[in-house]
Design a protein that fits this description.
elongated; single chain; two-stranded antiparallel ribbon; mainly alpha; 2 strands
Length: 229
């Protein structure tokens, strides 16, 4: 069983390796940067780098769990390493490999922060990798987790974009169309100030629901009027 001291030493070594890899990439030493990242990933997961490439997300998360609970600090650090790995692959003009690393980084960030308060620097990391990962056609589970993340932090405009894309995906259309409507119905319960902070207006929310034929005509606007005052 891993001790707390051992885990902390492992994390500190991985942080040092991440900083070293960033420096190597900036110096154009891409092969050594990838070797450094692989070594850090092996330390954090206990798995060989070539095996990590073949693992699905669930198996990777299991390797970062202790007694069934995800070690969130290690998971975030692995995500940081995967994100940097994608930057090296891009510098090498290997877009497919970069996409795999980006999507994995996003998945890990979202899993690791599902039950945690998310500070602004971490939000910025997630936002940056999310834009790139969505261009790589991230799998449904990752996109849905991203939608939930955006709603949870109050970024309603981005949450709306992700769930709209999911609702238009022919594989998930019927289920996600309902979720799309329910998302906007939940937004009706927000104050105008909350909506504006999240990049939405009440008129946009009502217009979307009216277009879907799902506007709640019994919705009590008097509550909203009181919230606006």
């Amino acid at each position: 069983m891993l001790t707390e001291d051992y885990i902390m030493r492992m994390i500190n070594m991985a942080i040092a390796a991440l900083l070293q890899a960033i420096g190597l990439r900036k110096a154009g030493e891409y092969t050594q940067a990838l070797v450094t990242i692989d070594q850090a990933l092996e330390q954090l997961t206990g798995l060989r780098a070539d095996l990590l490439l073949r693992l699905d997300d669930r198996a990777l998360l299991n390797s970062l769990s202790i007694q069934g609970e995800l070690d969130q600090e290690r998971a975030i650090l692995v995500a940081d390493l995967c994100s940097e790995q994608s930057e090296v692959y891009l510098a090498q003009n290997r877009p497919e490999a970069a996409c795999l690393s980006r999507v994995r980084a996003l998945t890990l960030y979202l899993e690791a922060t599902a039950d945690l308060p998310i500070d602004l620097p971490l939000q910025e990391k997630i936002n940056q990798i999310a834009l790139a990962a969505l261009e790589c056609q991230a799998p449904f589970e990752t996109r849905f987790a991203l939608y939930s993340y955006y709603e949870n932090i109050g970024n309603y405009v981005n949450a709306g974009k992700v769930i709209k894309d999911l609702s238009e995906d022919r594989l998930y259309r019927s289920e996600m169309r309902q979720e799309y409507v329910e998302f906007f119905q939940r937004l009706l319960e927000k104050t105008d100030a909350e909506l504006e902070r999240g990049g939405m207006t009440r008129s946009q929310v009502e217009h979307t629901l009216r277009r879907e034929g799902k506007i709640n005509t019994e919705y009590d606007h008097s509550d909203t009027d009181q919230q606006r005052q």
